[in-house]
Amino acid sequence: MMLVVQLLKGAAKHAGSRPQCSVERLFTAARGISSSSRQSSASGRSQCSACTDTDLPKVLITGGLGQLGVGLAKMLRRRIGKTNVILSDIRKPPNHVYHNGPFIFSDILDYKNLREIVVNNNISWLVHYSAVLSAVGENNVALAKEVNITGLHNILDIATEHGLRVFVPSTIGAFGPSSPRDPTPELCVQRPRTIYGVSKVHAELMGEYYHHRYGLDFRCLRYPGIISADSQPGGGTTDYAVQIFHAAVKTGQFECNLRGDTRLPMMYIDDCLRATLEFLEAPAETLVNRTYNINAMSFTPHDLTQEIQKFLPDLKVTYNVDPVRQAIADGWPMALEDSAARRDWGWNHEYDLPELVQTMVTHITMGNQVAQAY
C-alpha cells in the first residue's frame, strides 16, 4: 500500500505541472477565428462566447478501437464536444466506449460506405488510424497491403473530394537498415524491409503528392513506439515495452522477445496524443513540412528493466529473442531527430523514462487493485 501512495503522490505532482492544451488554438486552427474575439475565464481556460457548433471541426477517427483512437477521441471530445467526434471501427466497441460518444461501423475498404459517412456527418477532419502493424503484417502481407495501401487510397481520395484535413500516422518502421540510426533525420534514405514500413513510406509520399497536386491538407507524424497502460499491444515490434509492465505488476516475471541491448525510440501515450492534437490544431501556414519526426526518449529492454526495478525490485527478466521481431528492430532508428517539429509548431515532450515508469506502474497497480476488489 505504501508503494501505491508514493507512486500516486509522484504522479499527481507530475500531472499538476503539465500545461493544458488551449481551446483557443483549436478554434483558431479550425476556422481562423481571431484570438482577439476570445475572453479568458476566471479558471484560465480560453473561451469563445460567439462560437457555435458550426465553428468547430467535425472529426472522424478510423481504426478507433486501437491503441490510440479511444484516447484521442476522449481528448478531442473534451475540447469540442462529444457529438463532434465520431469513433469508428469494424469491431464492436466495449460498453464504456459505446456510451461515451458517437460510434459507428466503418470499413475503410468500403469506399461507398466511407464516403456516405463523411457526407452524412459533415466531416471536416479525418484521423486515419486503421492499419495492420509490423509483426502482424509480416505474417499476413496480403491483408497489410489491402488495409494499409488500398484503404489509404480511399481515405486520400475522399478527403480530397470533400476538402478535409486528414491526419495519417507514420512510424519509425518507415526507416530501414540503410537509414542513419542515431539520430534518424527527417529527410534521409528510408527503404524499410517490412510491408508495414513500405506502406507507411507510401502513405507519406502519397499524402505529400496529394497536398502538392490537389491542395489536400495532409498531415503526418512519425510515431516512436507508443506505451500505454490502458490498451493492449496491437502486434508491433515495440510491444514488449507495454507487456513488461503488466507482467511486472502481476507475476514479477517477464520474457522479452528482443535482445537486452536493443535501443529504440519510445513515447508515453499522453505525449503522443497531445502531439497529434497540437499538430492537427497548427495553422497550415506554420507547417514547413507535411511529415514530421517526433521524439521523446530512447531506451533498451535492459534500461527499462532497471528503471522498473526501482519500484518493483523483485522483477525478473529473461530473454527469448524472436528472430523476426529482432530483425525488424535492428533496422529501425535508435532515436528520431525532431527539431523541425519543435521549431515549426512548438512540439515538446513531457515524459522521460523515470516519469513514464512511475506513471505506468501507478496506473497498472491501481487498476489491478480495483479489479481484485470486485
Secondary structure blueprint with pairings:
Elements: H1 2-16, H2 23-31, E1 39-40, E2 46-47, E3 59-62, H3 69-80, E4 85-89, H4 95-98, E5 103-105, H5 111-120, E6 125-128, H6 134-139, H7 141-161, E7 165-167, E8 170-171, H8 195-214, E9 217-223, E10 225-227, H9 240-250, E11 253-256, E12 264-268, H10 269-281, E13 291-293, E14 297-299, H11 301-308, E15 316-319, H12 323-330, H13 339-344, H14 353-373
Parallel strand pairs: 3-4, 3-6, 4-5, 6-7, 7-9, 8-9, 9-13, 10-12, 11-15
Antiparallel strand pairs: 1-2, 12-14
Helix pairs in contact: 1-14, 3-10, 7-8, 9-11, 9-14
GO molecular function, one term: L-threonine 3-dehydrogenase activity
Protein name: L-threonine 3-dehydrogenase, mitochondrial
Function: Catalyzes the NAD(+)-dependent oxidation of L-threonine to 2-amino-3-ketobutyrate, mediating L-threonine catabolism.
